[in-house]
Every structure is written in structure tokens, then in C-alpha cells.
TrEMBL record:
SUPFAM superfamilies, alphabetized: Arginase/deacetylase
Family classification: Belongs to the histone deacetylase family.
Domain Histone deacetylase: 24-317
Key word Metal-binding present: no
The species this protein was found in: Aeromicrobium alkaliterrae
InterPro entries: AcuC, HDACs, His_deacetylse_dom, His_deacetylse_dom_sf, Ureohydrolase_dom_sf
Domain of life: Bacteria
Protein name in the entry: Acetoin utilization protein AcuC
């Protein structure tokens, strides 16, 4: 009897050099802390770990302009310059030596994850260092140099995929991925995020629904600041499963920025780790139901580097591996010492926040006095008709 293939985690130690400097919120150590925790809890035992080849210039040029790639390479070799037009050398995206190489490696890792799943070598694959969803065709944005998720989706299209669903649960709008596939009916981009009135990048209104050749291909659910687990799930379940079922994807690519957590220093959403874990289960269930389980997973934002990211993404990996971790599980003592040693802070002692996520389903009635409900209603009104779904029911 042959063994069924195992899920894959794509990782190379060199991704830790994606480093904007000691005072920048995007600390590469968060990936190291995640893999250490996932290893300590036995989650990584259920994966095959593979390395990746860097994306070539030609591959990068399938989504980025050749002149932009050239500019990144030039600054990468001479990090004393800046290129404001290309978004390089500002507070968000400081230039650093070797930034082209490590960004191309992260991009290549997401392509490898997509390739493994699409060719049937693995049922699911994860690149937690990926999820750099803000990068635009010709400029860096929001801590993102190359858009690895868009590159993975483009690879799938170039290799025969006809319906790819991208779901982004980062607290920030998945604007770069949306922009790159805005007019491509083969790609459905869904982003549930803190609304543009209060958070970077200032886009992701419900009225952004896709280009002239792809109406309904972009779905945006902007949430009010302060939204917690209950509101997040009310919004998610009022929109996302219905549209995914109508679109009927062949494969799902998801971005799991965990900056929606109440402790995240950059955002104003109020989710718990328990709620984030529940979102991963929901997406796994939809991948199983709709595309035979073909699921490519990336990380994303997350700036509570020791407190949240390692726990959230260890839950994510556990769910990808079909070995979910109970949120009541204590974190290993060795991992707590490791955090103390690497970060000089006290690590969380449990895998959850002691919350039990529950929500009031949309069917229980729309409350026009609720900002959240008005946003959900706006998202349904803007997107459901394109899929032939009645937004009222």
C-alpha cells in the first residue's frame, strides 16, 4: 500500500534575512518563534519540510514590471540609495542589503507551495514567511517587496488553473493581490479586513468588485474598528461561504495575517487567538468541500511578535496538518525559555486566550443601526448579484 502524500511546509532559514531593521515592526524572528513552537508541540512531525528555489527574474516579471525588479536589484546591491517612486527607502520599506534575493526566495517558496498542491505531490502546503500581499506591480508597499501570493496564483493560472479563490484574513486589505487580478475572471479575491477609514492601505471598500471583464471577482468586507470574534464571524459567514460555493474554485490560496488580534500594535480589530484558529478551521472546511482539499496557505502581517504570531500560526499549521492543537494546551517550557532568550519577554503559557468564539448568524436579522451590519449588508449588496445570489436572504 502506498502512503498518501503528506502536507508540505516550505521553509528556508535564509528567509530570516527579510529584515527591515531592529526598530521595524515586521520582525523576522516571528517565523523562527513559530517553527520552534510548532516543532515543540509535534506539529511539524506531520509535514514534509522542503526548501525552495528563488523566483527567477522572468517569474517575477509575470506580475511585477521589469523596471521595478531592476530597481529592487539595484538598491539591494547599493542599499545607501532610496527610490521613492518605487516605494523603497521610506519608513515602511527601508532598503537593505540582499533584499532582492530574500524577497525572491519568499516568492519562490509560495510558488513551490502552489506547485506541490497543484501537481498532487501534496494535499496542502504552507509558507508562513509568505503572504506579502501589498506589493504592487511597480512598487513596494506596506512591508512587501515582491507579492509572493500573487506570484503563486499567477503560476497556477500559467499551469492550467481556471478558477483560483484567494481569501485574505489579514487585518489589512489585500490590495496588491486584488490589483493584480482585478480584471481576471479566473481569480476570485476575497478580503475581510479593518475598514479603509481607519487603517492602511485605505482601500477595500465593499464597492470594489472587480474590473470590466471580471465583475464580482473582487469581494471586500470592511469591518469597523473594535470588531471582535463574534462580529468577524458574523461577517465572514454572511458572505464568504456563499460566494465561494458559487465560484466553485479548483484550488484555494489563503493569506493568514494574524494582526487582527486584540494585542496587535498596528490594528484596531479585537480577535482572540481562539477566534483566529476558528477562521483557519472554517477555511479548511471550505477547501475540503469545494476543491478536494487543495489548499495553499501563507502567513502575512502580525506584529505582536512573541505574544500572538507563534501561537496563531502554530494553530494554522496544526489545522493544515489535520492535527489541530487544543487552545487549552500549555506552551512548552523550552519554547518559553527560547522566547525569553530571543526576545527578553515573558512568553504566553497557553495556546489560546480562553475565549470560545460564537456569533449570531446573519439569518437572525439585519440591524441597520449596527455599523458592522451595515458593512456586511453593503458587501452582500455589492457582490451577491454578480453570482446570482439574492443579497436579502
Amino acid at each position: 500500500m502506498g502512503h498518501s502524500p503528506r502536507p508540505v511546509v516550505v521553509f528556508d532559514d535564509a528567509v530570516s534575512s527579510y529584515d527591515f531593521g531592529p526598530t521595524h515592526p515586521m520582525a523576522p524572528v516571528r517565523v523562527e518563534l513559530t517553527l520552534e513552537l510548532a516543532g515543540g508541540l509535534g506539529v511539524l512531525d506531520h509535514f514534509d519540510r522542503v526548501g525552495a528555489a528563488s523566483a527567477t527574474d522572468d517569474e517575477l516579471a509575470s506580475i511585477h514590471s521589469a523596471s521595478y525588479i531592476e530597481r529592487v536589484q539595484k538598491l539591494s546591491a547599493h542599499p545607501i540609495h532610496v527610490d521613492i517612486e518605487a516605494g523603497l527607502g521610506n519608513d515602511d520599506n527601508p532598503v537593505f542589503a540582499g533584499m532582492h534575493e530574500v524577497s525572491a526566495l519568499i516568492a519562490g517558496a509560495s510558488v513551490e507551495a502552489a506547485r506541490r498542491v497543484w501537481t498532487g505531490q501534496a494535499p496542502r502546503a504552507a509558507n508562513v514567511a509568505g503572504g506579502l500581499h501589498h506589493a504592487m506591480p511597480d512598487r513596494a508597499s506596506g512591508f512587501c517587496i515582491y507579492n509572493d501570493v500573487a506570484l503563486a496564483i499567477q503560476w497556477l493560472l500559467d499551469n492550467g488553473a481556471e478558477r483560483v479563490a484567494y481569501v485574505d484574513v489579514d487585518a489589512h486589505h489585500g490590495d496588491g493581490v486584488q490589483a493584480m487580478f482585478w480584471n481576471d475572471p479566473r481569480v476570485l479575491t476575497i478580503s475581510i479586513h479593518e475598514g479603509p477609514q481607519t487603517l492602511f492601505p485605505g482601500t477595500g471598500f465593499a464597492t470594489e468588485t472587480g474590473g470590466p471583464d471580471a465583475p464580482g471577482s473582487a469581494v471586500n468586507i470592511p469591518l469597523p474598528p473594535g470588531t471582535s470574534d463574534a462580529g468577524w464571524f458574523r461577517a465572514f459567514h454572511a458572505v464568504v461561504p456563499q460566494i465561494l460555493r458559487e465560484f466553485s474554485p479548483e484550488i484555494m490560496v489563503t493569506q493568514h495575517g494574524c494582526d487582527s488580534h486584540m494585542d496587535d500594535p498596528l490594528t484596531n480589530l479585537m480577535l482572540s487567538v481562539d477566534g483566529q484558529r476558528e477562521s483557519y478551521l472554517a477555511l479548511r472546511g471550505l477547501a475540503e468541500e469545494l476543491c478536494g482539499g487543495k489548499w495553499v496557505v501563507t502567513g502575512g502581517g502580525g506584529y505582536a511578535v512573541s505574544e500572538v504570531v507563534p501561537r496563531a500560526w502554530t494553530h494554522l499549521l496544526g489545522i493544515v496538518a489535520d492535527h489541530p492543537i487544543d487552545p487549552a494546551t500549555p506552551t512548552p517550557a523550552e519554547w518559553q525559555s527560547f522566547v525569553q532568550h530571543r526576545r527578553g519577554v515573558v512568553a504566553p503559557t497557553r495556546m489560546g486566550d480562553g475565549r470560545t468564539p460564537s456569533y449570531r448568524p446573519w439569518e437572525s436579522g439585519y440591524d441597520p443601526a449596527s455599523w458592522l451590519d451595515r458593512q456586511i449588508n453593503a458587501a452582500r449588496q455589492a457582490t451577491f448579484p454578480a453570482f446570482g445570489i439574492d443579497p436579502l436572504y
